Amino acid sequence: MKANHWTMYSNEYTLLGGERSMADVEVCTKQFVTSILFRNPVRRLASNLRYLMVYYKHDLSAKALTANRTDGEAAFFRSYANANASFWERVAPGIINNYYIRALLGEAVWHEPLGSLNATHHLRAARLVLMQYDIVVPTESPKALASRLLAYGAGWPVSYTDVHDQGMKELQEWFHFDVTPYMPSDDDMSYLNSKQALDMELYELAVLIGQLDYLVYETAAAWNVVPWEGMPATIDPAGHEDDAARYWLSCGLMRGPRAAWSQGLVDGSLRQRPNATTPDGK
Fold first, then answer.
1. Is the pLDDT assigned to residue 193 strictly greater than 60?
2. Residues 108, 21: contact at Cβ < 8 Å?
3. 3-state secondary structure of 130
4. Which helix (H) or strand (E) holds 205?
5. pTM
6. Which of 15, 70, 79, 24 is nearest to 52 (CA)?
C-alpha cells in the first residue's frame, strides 16, 4: 500500500487469519483505521442476488461470444433466472446464509455448511470481532449520521453518501438489464430472509455502535473540534474545478461506472491525499 501511495484498502471477502479457525481472525494491523459498512442483512441479500444475476448474465453472454456461440443468454435463463431458494443455497451458501458472520469469522467459517452456525459460538464471536472496528457505519442510517461517522472517524469531509455512484440502478443501466422479473419468488425470498436471523442480531449491534459513535462526534462538532486542522465542514463534490481538489476527493470509496465495472483495481481508484491539504502530508 505504501509503495502504491494508497490511503485505503478494501476487502470484500473474509477477514484474514481465519483460514483454519475463527479463533485466528484478525481485523487488521494496528497501523490501520478499520471500518465496516453494515447493511440490513435482508436488504443486503436481495441486493447481492440482483448483483450476481446482472454479472452472471453479462459473463455468460461474453464468454459465449468469445467462443463464437450465441447461447450465452439462454444459459442464464435456464439456470439463474427465477431460480428457487434451494438453487441459491447450493450455488452461493456463504452469500445466502448469514453473510456477515461468515465474513467476519474468516474463511473456515465462510465454508461451514448451511445450518451449522449458531448464536452461542458464532454470533458471540462475530460480536467481539465487530466491536474491534474503529468505524461501524450502518448503511440504512440517515445521511447525516453516516457522513458524520466517516468525517470524524476517517477524516473525510466527503463520504459515500455524497459520491456514491455504484448502486443497482446504475449497474442495471450499464448492462441494459433489469433483473427484477428474474428474482426468486416471494415465497422463496421469505424463506431466504428467515435464514438471516443471526446476521440480523449482529446488525442490531452495528446500529447501536454507529449511534453511540455519532453522539460522541456530534458532541465534538458542537465544541468546534475537527478531525484535522483546516478540514472544511462541508464540501460539494461537484463544486471543485481545480485538479488538486478533484485529486483529494478521489478517496477510493467507490469505483463507479467510470471504472467500467472492472473486477480489479483501476489506476486512480485509490489515491493519496495531496500533501498541501492534510497535516504532515499524510
1. yes
2. yes
3. helix
4. helix 197-222
5. 0.80
6. 79
